[in-house]
Amino acid sequence: MQAMAVFDADSHLFERPELWASHIDPQHRELALRIENDELGHPWLMHRNRKLMLTWTCEPSNFESIGDLIGDHREGRPARFDYGRDLPASHWDPATRRDCLDGWGIEESVCFPQWGINWELWLGEDLTSLHANMAAWNRWASEVRQEGRGRLHPVGHVSLRGDLDWLESQLAFLDTHDIRLAMMSTGLVDGRRLSHPDLDRAWSLFERYGVTPTFHVGGPSLTGLVDPAWIANDDMDYMPMLSYPLHGTDAQLALSDLVLNGVLARHPAMRVAVVELLSRWLVDLMFKVDAAYNTYRRISGHRLLELPERPSDYLRRQVRLSAFAAEKPGALMEQLGPILMFGGDFPHPEGYASPLAEYRAKTGEQLADDVAAKFYGGNLAELLHR
Length: 386
Known about the structure:
- By secondary structure, the protein is an alpha/beta fold.
- The protein has a single domain (7-15, 88-383), classed as Metal-dependent hydrolases (TIM Barrel), CATH 3.20.20.140.
- Helix content is 41%, strand content 13%.
- Strand 8, helix 8 (164-176) and strand 9 form a beta-alpha-beta unit.
- The two termini are 23 Å apart.
């Protein structure tokens, strides 16, 4: 394989306890999320006086690094670490993370929030708090971008809910600070599908400001897909056991809607990123959207929307997905085309302490040079408008 600049499409920066309060609009200071220890020292993500979720640290390739900490709380044992004091610098500090990249053989890395992938699950009914804390993260992301010196690409956090003027203000801010990815929910928007005509302005805004809408696994992924009764026996409401076999189902629904109802056709310059939601399902989805488009016409006698191209063509051209090593991305791209991306997922337990080397070793695949160039950097560079 020829030497190339490797871009990592998936890593996370843990939020410090004071991050939201120190970056939120002062008029909304009382709405800021925070991380606070309980009487046994266990750190909780808090909103006002409400405990949203137990937080933790973790080690790459070690799921028990989370399970042991959660188990301590469940069994009433004192916390074994202090979140504010003991969180490793590589987990949260932009300069430390930037400096890690050289040792990993990675040129540039995307950085998602850690708790930001979950807290929208609980603040969904409080639009003011939702927007205020998203904007606080986006301000922090601008600092990460600056401290990363062009090597870190923090992901913004936005919502299509409420007044789309707010969305425009956030996308304009991200554009100004050269932040090219923005995480958003895959779910309904106040009861409307993503392709609803009322939301077409939102997709035009993503195009105008050159920001890539990004779907990532997290607490809201299952919302709207299953009745809460299905997971009523599970105390891990942000990561219930039933979410594992359904992993990526929400992304499939969102992409099917965006394709079959014409959003991608109407916005050809827009790209969509799908990260940490698996990728092997895309093979079936491409077959299914083409079959649905043709079968519906034959059964109903008309089309809901006439598309200039096959639905699967829009997926191939405008959607890019990160792939887990165990999915054998090289074999998948023989069917899909070279549209997948490398993501090392540091510092999550499903990720790697040395992301690039361990990922390559786990796949056991040797990619052709042109495919490798896209997988290990080119596709992400496209999303970043490089």
